[in-house]
Design goal:
Layout lengths: L2 E8 L2 E7 L1 E7 L4 E7 L3 E6 L2 E5 L3 H15 L5 E6 L4 H6 L7 E5 L3 H10 L12 E4 L3 H6 L5 E7 L13 H10 E10 L6 H17 L2 E8 L7 E8 L10 H6 L9 H7 L4 H13 L1
Length: 286
């Protein structure tokens, strides 16, 4: 008998992955957590029926959400990661020796425990001595912070369920306040392709534009995410994501990446016409 995992992307579209076995299934206080093993994508983590990451393509997401701001900001010493219980963002951040402190705020402790147990390649740096893990609501955590972080990475789930509060105007305003005067915030911005996702993407962009003086959107291709076309938001108090990119400095680090390069960085901010139109609608009418 063949086993398949299917995730609905719209009422008319599903992504199906053949599964060898289910490694874990449980219900936390916040969501259902599943881990599957598949011949094509390796192990993959599912929250409330939606794929969060697969071993085969997680490097794309984690490299693009981390190295883009790190190649722009000249001296990140203190970083805040919201969500990211799988450890992928922390893994990428710990490649930078100049970072002295990484605060990771994850609402669901069980996601971290399951990732440590079943996704060791992603969760491999959670025990780095610079990392402090806080099991609480990211919205509440950031509310009390002021002028504290050089970088905030918002690696949230989709804008419903436990991640809903991380897409509000209040949250982005609090992130602005929590950043130092040269601070950068990066967030996952959903996909622009299917109508429901595009609406969420526009809503997030509108609220970020209202909170930050510099706000740009960039893209990556992630095969297991809806439509494969995924956006990220880059919001900053001072730095422009392309004009202030120091590609030579980044290359001199000789970091091991499989997706990110400074050349790709520049190109990622060149968006398709339909996406530009989508974003312009909220920028103009915001």
């Amino acid at each position: 008998m063949e086993l398949w995992f299917s995730e609905p992307h719209t009422p008319n579209v599903k992504l199906s992955i053949r599964v060898d076995r289910q490694l874990y299934s449980g219900q936390s206080e916040f969501q259902r957590i599943d881990v599957f093993e598949s011949p094509e994508f390796g192990r993959f983590l599912v929250l409330d029926g939606y794929i969060m990451l697969t071993e085969k393509d997680e490097f794309i997401y984690h490299e693009m959400i981390t190295h883009v701001p790190m190649a722009v900001h000249p001296h990140v010493e203190k970083a805040l990661v919201i969500g990211a219980g799988d450890g992928g963002v922390v893994r990428e951040l710990t490649k930078y020796p100049e970072i002295k402190q990484i605060d990771m705020v994850e609402i669901d402790e069980q996601v971290v425990q399951i990732s440590r147990a079943y996704l060791p390649r992603t969760a491999c740096r959670l025990d780095d001595q610079r990392v402090s893990i806080h099991y609480e609501d990211g919205l509440k955590f950031v509310r009390s912070k002021e002028n504290e972080y050089d970088l905030i990475i918002v690696d949230s789930t989709d804008p419903f369920g436990p991640g809903e509060g991380l897409f509000t105007k209040e949250f982005y305003g609090n992130c602005y306040k929590a950043l130092r005067e040269e601070g950068i915030m990066v967030n996952q911005h959903e996909s622009p392709f299917y109508e429901e996702d595009a609406t969420a993407c526009m809503r997030a962009h509108k609220r970020i534009v209202e909170s930050f003086p510099i706000s740009r959107v960039y893209q990556a291709h992630i095969p297991t995410y809806p439509s494969g076309h995924w956006l990220f938001g880059f919001a900053s108090k001072r730095y422009h994501p392309v004009r202030d990119l120091d590609g030579e400095r980044w290359l001199a680090r000789e970091l091991d990446t499989k997706y990110y390069t400074p050349r790709l960085h520049e190109g990622a901010f060149c968006l398709p016409a339909y996406v530009e139109r989508l974003l312009r609608r909220v920028e103009v009418h915001g």
